[in-house]
User: Fold these one by one.
Assistant:
Number 1:
Amino acid sequence: MPMPRRLLFISTPVGPLGSGLGGGVELTLLNLAQGLGDRGHQITVLAPEGSSLGDAAIVTVPGQLQPTAHTQGRSAPVIIPADSALGAMWRYAQQHQKQYDLIVNLAYDWLPFYLTEFFSTPVAHFVTMGSLSDAMDEAIGQVAQQFPGRLGAYTRTQAETFEVANAFEILSSAIDLELYDFCPSPGDALAWMGRISPEKGLEDALEAAAIAQAPLKILGNLEDANYWQTLCDRFPHAANCYLGFLPTAELQRVLRQCRALVMTPRWVEAFGNVAIEALACGVPVIAYARGGPAEIVQPGKTGWLVPPDDVQGLVDAIANIDQLDRHACRQQAEAEYSLDALAARFEQWFETIITSAH
Ligand code: HBI
């Protein structure tokens, strides 16, 4: 077991931890804090005010939240609002960096990458989405060139959206399996989970469920109200399907009763934490063969992969759910996506950076 390290994790500036605005980053941070804490490391999390994160040591800073990167477009300029939480978090990090062996950035923003060379404590970057803008690609490319080995990603597919794909350490993801109860015999509903935002393609799941005449349960943060309104106009019953953004304990009580999770990403989903949450409950995953889910689903065993944007393909997969093995789903989660497996992967990545930085 390598020596205990003092690690400062800097969270996403788009929202307080626990609000759901940070999407998969919130779960990743919670899991890393718990998994690495259990392995004896000292974890501090730096996040916007109003954040909460289980029992990890957390430092919060006030300030204006960052506009989300995934709606800005490729040529979007770098935006830093006045009184920015992002700026405040990185000022804190600069002032306290000597107390840590490593700083780990989880923000998908330009500033942390630009500041890397100005820190004496090594800064690692866990990149949580695929390539979205030229400005971010440039900042990420700069780190790849100056500090090889400092970039991490969830999946190979996600890394390949960047020119510097080979500079990324692939770390996958995980969940706390103890929070998810296996369910051998589900009801007749399908599930869809995620931020309700255009890049998640919820309309295809609503259309496929309607054709298959299967009830659909929608869970997640209602991020884009205009988009949701267009869905409700097109699918009048959609509002009845929406169960809100639920904490994990309640979420899994709904999810585990479903026959399958349907994933309809329009973009390259970096990972798709919801896929392993489903597997942990024994719920097979029907997903477009795009991004992270394509590296998670074992076709014909723990789910089906469908040609991207092919709604009829979703309907065909829904008709073949009974060929899938719910026990195999739980077993895959235990083998590949436990907290300790994740912590061991990150610990090894951090050790390589820390030992080569001196
Ligand atoms: N946008 N500007 C910005 N910064 C982030 O850290 C960020 C984001 N959009 C979405 C997001 N993080 C997370 O929901 C995903 O990385 C999972």
Note: Residues 12, 14, 22-25, 66, 68-70, 107-109, 128-129 surround 7,8-dihydrobiopterin (CB under 6 Å).
Number 2:
Amino acid sequence: MNKILIIEDEQRVAELIKQGLEEQGFVTTIANDGQTGKQLAIDNHYDIIITDIILPKMNGIDLCREVRLQKPKIPIIMLTALGTTDDKVEGFDAGADDYLVKPFDLRELHVRIRALLKRNQTNNLQGFILKYSGLELNLNTKIVKRDDKEISLTPKELKLLEYMMQNPERVLSRTEIAEQVWDTTFDTGTNFIDVYMNYLRKKVDKDFYVKLIHTKPGLGFIFKNYSL
Ligand code: CA
């Protein structure tokens, strides 16, 4: 299921977009200001971000720039009531993939969303090998190698490693990992993530001098080569 973040301060417009997208089977989250939207976009996984330009606390153009620094590939569609050429150019400069002038037809928004999702899938197929510091994960064959030595992982370990390799050098909280890898919200009192992280460490790090999976006490985990 594709997840979409809608950043829009006009409650009525946000609800309308949300309704339209949910009818199409998307899962949506609404943020009513730029600051909240930016934080959600950085902390969570979304397949597409739809953002208004004129927003309280942080405008859509600054938001787009800042999110792009952390997540260069996430598709962003900008909405605006102004629709002047200057805004359009600035929006694209900031890294927006597409642009819609309000008021727009929801069907038009669906067409743009589908096009962006399709483009992203094609990109992912082309770049299907994740590589980091001698570690390789082929998303197509599911073969994992470190320094050309094959490592055998269970499907869950594979999914966990894939998520970490897609988000390197960033602290990943247990909540985020639970949501993204297990598709569940983290229930306090369970330590299943730590258990899986230990399995993964034994296979990925134990026999190698450089360790890639690290615990950040009180915060979560980070996938990083500290000697780089
Ligand atoms: Ca607005």
Note: The radius of gyration is 19 Å.
Number 3:
Amino acid sequence: MVTLESYVSGAWFRASSGFRPLIDPSTEAEIAQASSEGVDMGAACRFARDVGGPALRDLTMAERGGLLSAMSKALAEVREELLDLSVESTGVTRRDAKFDIDGATGTLAFYSHLSKSLGDARVLHDGSGDALGRSARFYGQHVFVPRHGVAVLIDAFNFPAWGFAEKLACAFLAGMPVLIKPATSTAWVTERCVRILVDAGVTPPGTLSFIAGSAGDLLSHLGPQDVLAFTGSASTGLDLRSHERILSQSVRVNVEADSLNAAVLAPDVVSGSDTYSLFFREVVREMTQKSGQKCTAVRRILVPQDRLSEVRDELASRLGDVVVGNPREEAVTMGPLTTADQLADTLEGISLVVQSGAEVVCGGAERVQGRGAPDGKGYYVDATLLSVSSAEQVPAVHSREIFGPVATLVPYDGSAEAAAGIVALGQGSLVTSLYSDDEDWVGRLLPTAAAWNGRLYLASKKMAEQAPGSGLVLPLSKHGGPGRAGGGEELGGLRGVQLYMNRVALQGSKTMIDRLVGKPSDES
Ligand code: NAP
């Protein structure tokens, strides 16, 4: 039995009690255990702030980027091992594991590359400055400086590598040390990544800490210079952001939570066209990749009423080809859900929507036998397509996130305005994908859809060849959405770095300010 350890105050810590088991979801075998009992969370935070913080702030942004590059390389060197461990311990197929592991190394490498353009800087300029007086002699300039705290990264179970790496990349570049607290159920992969980074000696002391097991009283030790970057369910997000200490200390919080993402087929997209093929390819992938346990997965499929039966039949046929089972089997294309709780929650969600009137097109609220899994074991469900007769018929379609391979077909009258209204019923999403070659139609949908989403994926024949799918979170684009999605913002190039910095307005002589912030002065 493997016992995961925490890495705090510069040393590995092994708990002796309070363990939670980690279960292989493909077989239900107990494979590891984790506990944070006995970890001194306050000391861990102080060590990160006092030792890791100054070490990072001493470096230029390009040098911090150098650390990210070394981290990316250290993880990439053991890619095969990490892929194997992901399959063995989290139930993902090898292909889905790559999405997480390569996403982690790729995002670290991206931010390393970005840092090169920042060179010797230790602060970020926030736009150009302004004359505040009669002339530019009295001048104002906003800059971002590193916060002097620790960035606590609390992540969901579905991305044990990318989840921490995308946050860490931005925090490190900003100059903040991190304390990683992954979801316990899949923490083995995260612990392995942290061990690799620590053993490779690519993180200065105090810059990287890790908690195996529950967060304990971690939040009670956070203060005004710290950041809490959370990804997970809306209910946990609410608990964390309303924690007394977080509120009283004005700890900066970013929340990435639930999302009922929509894919919208526009009426101009005719059968057999490039955009039509793209729509089916991507919707099926966004429903089934990582068994639908992706925050960006498609949950609602909006289709013009007169195309509903055609789309339903084609999607059902493609979803019928999905092979559900133990990801160690080569023929398997979709693994199990990650935990018993996830399975129960998914089955409950499907039942709720069906009992409220939705029709089951394929799949359903049933645990199934996975190919290559021990009899009756493993948290398997079929890819499930539901259908409603109108957007209003089952309100839960727009409010209950079913975190599994499940989506619902929703007919609309073909107008951009009606589609926009249905998208908005989700009360805030990470991404909506629009499949249309009609610019006017997209333009009419845009204002409302843009207000309710963090990202709009405008799929058309012109970009089909390079289309990565709406579910891929690219580090150059913002990740996060309003309302139900948590109201957070991550990534988006340098925008994501700002979360870990304090914006300060400097007022004074332009010459002095330009020198202090490292800008060439044009004032004589
Ligand atoms: P979760 O149950 O909310 O847990 C998320 C994280 O919070 C875990 O690390 C968990 O640790 C920790 N946690 C739970 N209670 C806590 C507390 N009182 N104090 C401190 N930490 C606490 O979510 P999940 O089941 O892992 O993930 C599924 C959800 O995440 C879905 O709703 C999905 O939409 C959302 N998600 C969103 C995004 C996004 O970017 N918007 C991305 C991925 C997932 P333990 O595991 O130790 O309990």
Note: The pocket of NAP is lined by residues 154-158, 181-185, 214-215, 231-233, 236, 239-240, 256-259, 295, 401, 403, 430, 485-486 (CB under 6 Å).
